[in-house]
Structures are given as C-alpha cells and as structure tokens.
Design goal:
Layout: H1 2-6, H2 12-29, H3 32-42, H4 49-58, H5 62-74, H6 83-97, H7 100-108, H8 120-134, H9 138-154, H10 158-172, H11 177-194, H12 197-209, H13 218-221, H14 226-236, H15 241-248, H16 252-265, H17 271-280, E1 281-283, E2 290-292
Helix pairs in contact: 2-3, 2-4, 3-4, 4-5, 4-6, 5-6, 6-7, 6-8, 7-8, 8-9, 9-10, 10-11, 10-12, 11-12, 14-16, 14-17, 15-16
C-alpha cells in the first residue's frame, strides 16, 4: 500500500507493479474477489502476467490466464529472467483448463539448467510433476514434486515449498497416506505461519480427508471479514440469526449467510462450535484485533 501511494508520483509502471504485488498478497490471503478487482484497475494485464494468471486460475478463468501468458511469452526473450515463471504459469493454466496436451507443450518450453533464473530447476520439476500426476503417474510425480519442494526450500521460498508439499501430499495420499499426512501437516503449519489462508485451507481440507482433525486457531480468524467478526462476537453471546440481523441492521438472510461463511472459513460444524471457538479466539465487534482467551 505504501508503494502504491508512492507510485502516484512515479508514473505508470511503478503503479502497476505495486498493484500486482497487492493482488498477489490478497490472493495468498484468500481474498480472490479483491485480487481480481485490483488487477482490473491495473490496466494491461500482460505487464503483470504472472500474478494475473494465478488470480484468474483461482477465480475459475484459466482461459484468461492462457491468453495473457501466451501474449506475454510471445514478446519475451527466453533468456529473460521472467520467462520460466511465465512458462510455468502457462502449464498451470492449461492443467486448470483440462488441456493436458497443451500443458505438456508449455512444459517443454521451460528453459534448461543454463538459464540465469535461480528457480528454473524448481519450476521445471514442479511443472513436470503436475503433468505426471495428471497422467496418473503418481510415482514419477511424487519424485519430481519432492525435488521441487527441496529446491524451493534451498532458495528460501517457504510459500512455494509449502504449496508444492500440499501437491505432493495429494499425489501420494492414495498409496501412502502416512506420508501424505506428514507432508500436508508440515505444509499447513508453514502456510498458517505465513498467513497464506487460501492454501492453508487446502492443506487442512486434505488432512481432514485423510482422517486427521484440524483445529481452527488465531491465524484463521484473519480469514474473516470485519462484518463476520462482528457476527462471530454475537454468536458468542448466543444470539439467533434474527437477533443478529436486528443488532447489525442487516436482513436475517444476510445474517444467515455470514454465519455459514464463518463456519466454512473456520472449519466448524455448528453454531455451538463457533461460540466455543469465539470464547477462546475472538475479534471484538468493530475492532481489528484478536483477543485471546476472552
């Protein structure tokens, strides 16, 4: 936000770069709609094609990601530092669209080991691993994804390493559920500490599918909007949906929607669990902090 404010006097390119960084942050935090709005205000998506593609894939529009990435790649020298990131993004986009053949072609366009970008090996191993998984070659996929995770760790890129470990856990979950639990648990802890709510939720969901209970904690409160925090405070007081609606001057239907959203975001099953959760981790109505043990 500070960079965006400073960019007002520095011209168009710094502003677009700052918007791209903000959109990427919002995506990691799980605010996909906000990330889309930010990118819409940025203008030419090709200038922040990598972030744009990630956001569009998350928003369910891989076709838009493909169009922008293809356009940017066509105008980018293969020796450019951004080229492997764009090519890896194109693999993701084609896989998200279900076009395995085009994803394979995109993976072949990834540069070799002599490229100056330090992430080339990790990006190539991950892309190849995801392709192998899509083809049903779980053993090959697991080895490639493990290599990618180790390399991302070596490069001190914890978010990328954790995301790949979730993908690895998903690949091995059928044949080696114990290993899947280890990888997903490690990734969940790292993602929660990073505040990457969207990917942390995916890791937690995978663990639940493997029979491992995950408990909501203070970091997950950060996924709630301010209005949802207000509603959670009223759930703690035992108010019904109509009573919450009257207290907040909203309709009962809107109150019910907020309650459902809270339960989904915090992995809770009932209002009673929400009230119990709020008794330990509670954002005060109208506030922006988390009060522990109230």
């Amino acid at each position: 936000m500070r960079a965006l404010s400073m960019a007002a006097d520095l011209g168009r390119e710094p502003r677009i770069e700052a918007l791209g960084g903000l959109a990427e942050l919002r995506l990691r935090q799980g605010a996909i709609d906000e990330a889309v709005e930010i990118l819409t205000s940025a203008g030419d998506a090709r200038e922040i094609a990598s972030v744009y593609s990630e956001v569009m894939i998350a928003a369910g529009h891989p076709d838009r990601a493909i169009a922008v990435l293809r356009s940017r790649l066509a105008a980018t020298d293969t020796r450019d530092a951004v080229f492997p990131i764009l090519a890896a993004g194109l693999v993701d986009a084609y896989l998200a669209s279900g076009d395995l053949a085009s994803a394979n072609d995109a993976a072949e366009s990834l540069p070799g080991a002599g490229h100056e970008h330090p992430q080339v090996f990790a990006l190539t191993e991950r892309a190849s691993g995801l392709l192998a998984a899509a083809r049903g070659e779980s053993g090959v996929a697991a080895n490639l994804l493990r290599n990618a995770a180790v390399e991302f760790d070596r490069l001190d890129l914890p978010f990328h390493a954790a995301r790949v470990r979730v993908e690895l856990a998903r690949v091995v979950s059928a044949e080696n559920p114990s290993l899947a639990v280890v990888e997903a648990s490690w990734a969940l802890d790292r993602l929660e500490r990073l505040g990457a709510h969207r990917d942390a939720a995916a890791a937690a969901a995978l663990l639940r599918n493997l029979g491992i209970a995950t408990r909501p904690g203070p970091r997950q409160v950060g996924q709630l909007s301010q209005r949802e925090r207000d509603v959670l405070a009223l759930i703690k007081r035992g108010l019904t949906n109509p009573e919450i609606a009257a207290e907040l001057f909203i309709s009962p239907r809107t109150a019910a929607h907020h309650v459902s959203s809270i339960l989904a975001k915090l992995n809770l099953r009932s209002r009673a669990e929400a009230a119990a959760f709020a008794a330990t981790y509670q954002a005060e109505p109208g506030g922006d902090h988390v009060a522990i043990g109230r």
